[in-house]
Design a protein that fits this description.
The complex is a heterodimer of chains A (338) and B (343). Chain A has 338 residues and is an alpha/beta fold. Chain A is built from eleven helices and twelve strands. Chain A has one domain: Rossmann fold. In chain B, helix 1 crosses helix 4 and helix 9 packs across helix 11. The chains are: A alpha/beta (338), B mainly alpha (343).
Chain lengths: 338, 343
């Protein structure tokens, strides 16, 4: 319990902890998709906030609803039905008309996607694709090109000036991801949503892209929502971490605390499954079973069939949100009201 | 080099196709019942005359030798001599070709002007009323047989409403000096607006007969590929940039859909040369198609085979041009050439 004491001693209670001014506030966001037979709830009553300049990670297995949530923030997927509230910079995004929403995208919020190989238009030059974000807003051709060049330079794309007129196929995966980043950053957004931005890249390129993202977010005090399944890349990057399981956020805390003192059995399981260089283990722990399909969620706590600590109550009652003394926001009966 | 290599590959394929076609035509000549020399010499020729014609045409040589001679003649552009007119088939074809080209050009323009906007709007408003209606129109248009369509157009436009002439090339007495062989272009060159409108009136119905199935097919493919591109991963970042739907369609989906569409248009325009046999006959127009039909009616074997060869060459060339345009539209291939040049 040594580590616990060191970390818990002197922790400022969550209620009085200094939080940056709010930029994005998501309240009771639910995402439904209508299939042929039924309405399926992909994301269920999710609430969270992101402050200005804050870096938040949303972690979960594939199918947990994290990408759907990310796309919902920009209302990119028109086939899903969104309910709840998404306040961004004082505007409720869900009440905007499609035209007003189009104006928000690119300018106030930018987004980066998983696969840089398929994220770019193969028939358009790099320069035009980066400048397009600005051209849409009526920035002159010349100025848009100059600003595209500045961003590519900022992202350390070598010989950017010569390569503005190159096509995507002439770039490597890492370079393409920088171009995709540049498309999102050139409009100088306040919030960058990065949906698995490094998953398709090899490890060393991953690291470089993350370092760049880190550097730029600091310099521009840009808020970042990093969506990933890889806790390894979250550790050095995020201020705060949210863990998503089967369409719900099951735990949220400051990154250092979440890694040191994971509360929810699912978070613990995820952390034990990350290979570490500092500890030798015979066999890496894993969470048995697979996450449920959104159409067939178990009753009560959706994690109970895979949970080592499952109790009778877990099978029938959905756990509410509890704030632990460490400041973690948890949905688990282990930390129930009692 | 990828670029040049691909083009030379296409060229080699075209040459091989034409060689195959020439061989087929040669076999057809040999298989047609009746003595070639007898046909060439005419029905009333004496046995001595037939023998001398056979010698002159090299028909007494071994078949392989004849085949090589035939290929050499084709290479020189000698498609044989018409028995009916005693003129080289090529000369006759050259005289009627511009009229067919004029028809094909107008048909392609009309078809493209109909298909592209329809496909763009249908893809933008997928699943909406306009999309449904245009798809029904496209299926109907694509299913109409050309001969029926031609007769219906003649009946309604030419007979019932009397908007256009029923058949022919131009009205009696309205004819500009023959420069290009295309009545509309000749009239324009002569600065004769009346002549131009007159020739246009004759041209419009046959062009529509070609344009409708052309538009239907182009519409279907273009709409499908636009929707494919719009649903691809590529469009999410574009949407996230704040692009409007029309920008997504026009600036990203359309260029990416152009590649398969241009290929299809090449095939369809090539096919029009074959369709001209029917359309030009129904509308009594000069052209490669009606020449072929007439030659068949007159049992002019060499003219028929020469025209078949000619149509084959035309189809191959149109497809080759479409292939090259497709290659040039794609920077992944185009760029490969520039980089090779820079090294």
């Amino acid at each position: 319990m040594g580590v616990d004491t060191i970390l818990t001693d002197g922790i400022v209670p969550a209620q009085v902890r200094r939080r940056p001014e709010s930029l994005l506030q998501v309240d009771q966001l639910s995402i439904d998709i209508a299939t042929r037979d039924a309405n399926v709830r992909l994301v269920d009553n999710v609430s969270f906030g992101i402050g200005r300049g804050e870096r938040v990670a949303l972690v979960g297995e594939s199918g947990s609803g994290k990408s759907v949530t990310a796309q919902a923030l920009m209302r990119l997927n028109s086939r899903v039905k969104l309910s709840g509230r998404v306040q961004f910079d004082g505007t409720d995004l869900l009440s905007l008309s499609p035209r007003q929403m189009t104006a928000m995208r690119g300018q106030r919020m930018g987004m980066v996607f998983q696969d840089p190989m398929s994220s770019l238009d193969p028939l358009m030059t790099i320069g035009d694709q980066v400048a397009e974000t600005l051209r849409i807003r009526g920035v002159s051709k010349r100025e848009a090109r100059q600003r595209a060049l500045d961003v590519l330079d900022e992202l350390k794309v070598e010989r950017a000036a010569e390569r503005l007129d190159s096509f995507p196929h002439e770039f490597s995966g890492g370079m393409r991801q920088r171009v995709v980043l540049a498309m999102a950053l050139v409009g100088e957004p306040h919030l960058l949503i990065a949906d698995e931005p490094t998953t398709a890249l090899d490890v060393r390129v991953q690291e470089r892209v993350l370092d760049l993202l880190d550097e730029i977010s600091r310099r521009r005090s840009l808020a970042v929502l990093l969506i990933t399944h890889d806790l390894g890349i979250v550790a050095g990057f995020a201020d705060r971490v949210m863990v998503m399981y089967s369409g719900r956020i099951v735990e949220e805390n400051e990154a250092t605390l979440l890694f040191a003192e994971p509360q929810h059995p699912y978070t613990r399981g995820l952390l034990e499954a990350v290979p570490r260089a500092d500890i030798t283990v015979d066999r890496l722990r894993s969470i048995s079973g697979a996450p449920p399909a959104p159409a067939a969620r178990p009753s009560g706590c959706t994690f109970h069939p895979r949970c080592d600590h499952a109790m009778a109550v877990c099978t029938s009652v959905e756990p509410g949100e509890t704030i632990t003394p460490l400041g973690a926001r948890v949905r688990c009966h282990l930390y129930g009201e009692g | 080099m990828a670029y040049l290599r691909l083009i030379s590959q296409r060229l080699v394929m075209t040459v091989l196709t034409l060689w195959g076609l020439a061989t087929l035509v040669f076999i057809m000549i040999k298989l047609i019942p009746g003595d070639e020399a007898q046909v060439a010499a005419g029905p009333g020729a004496s046995p001595e005359q037939v023998a001398s014609v056979a010698k002159r045409l090299g028909l007494d040589l071994p078949v392989l030798q004849q085949y090589l001679n035939f290929l050499l003649r084709m290479l020189r552009g000698d498609l044989g001599t018409s028995v009916v007119s005693s003129k080289p088939v090529l000369t006759e074809l050259a005289a009627v070709l511009p009229s067919t080209i004029e028809l094909m050009i107008l048909a392609s323009i009309i078809g493209t002007v109909i298909a592209f906007p329809m496909a763009l709007v249908a893809a933008t408003y997928r699943g909406k009323a306009f999309d449904g209606i245009t798809r029904i129109i496209a299926v109907t248009g694509g299913a109409m047989p050309a001969f029926w369509l031609a007769l219906m157009l003649q009946f309604f436009f030419g007979n019932v409403w009397r908007i256009t002439p029923i058949s022919g090339q131009h009205s009696f007495g309205i004819s500009s000096p023959n420069v290009t062989g295309m009545p509309t272009l000749d009239a324009l060159l002569a600065g004769d607006m009346v002549g131009f409108l007159d020739a246009m009136a004759y041209l419009i119905l046959p062009a529509i007969v070609f344009a409708i199935p052309f538009a239907a097919q182009v519409f279907r493919l273009l709409r499908a590929s636009l929707l494919g591109v719009l649903a691809s991963d590529m469009m999410l970042p574009v949407r996230a940039k704040g692009a409007s739907t029309s920008r997504m369609v026009l600036r990203h989906a359309l260029p990416n859909s152009l590649l398969p569409t241009v290929s299809l248009m090449g095939v369809l325009i090539g096919g029009m040369v074959g369709g001209a046999i029917l359309v030009e006959t129904v509308f009594a127009r000069r052209g490669v198609g009606s020449f072929l039909a007439n030659s068949v009616a007159l049992k002019d074997t060499y003219a028929v085979l020469g025209a078949v060869m000619f149509v084959g060459i035309a189809v191959c060339l149109v497809n080759l041009v479409a292939d090259i345009i497709t290659l040039m539209l794609d920077p992944r291939i185009r760029g490969a050439q520039f980089r090779a040049g820079a090294k």
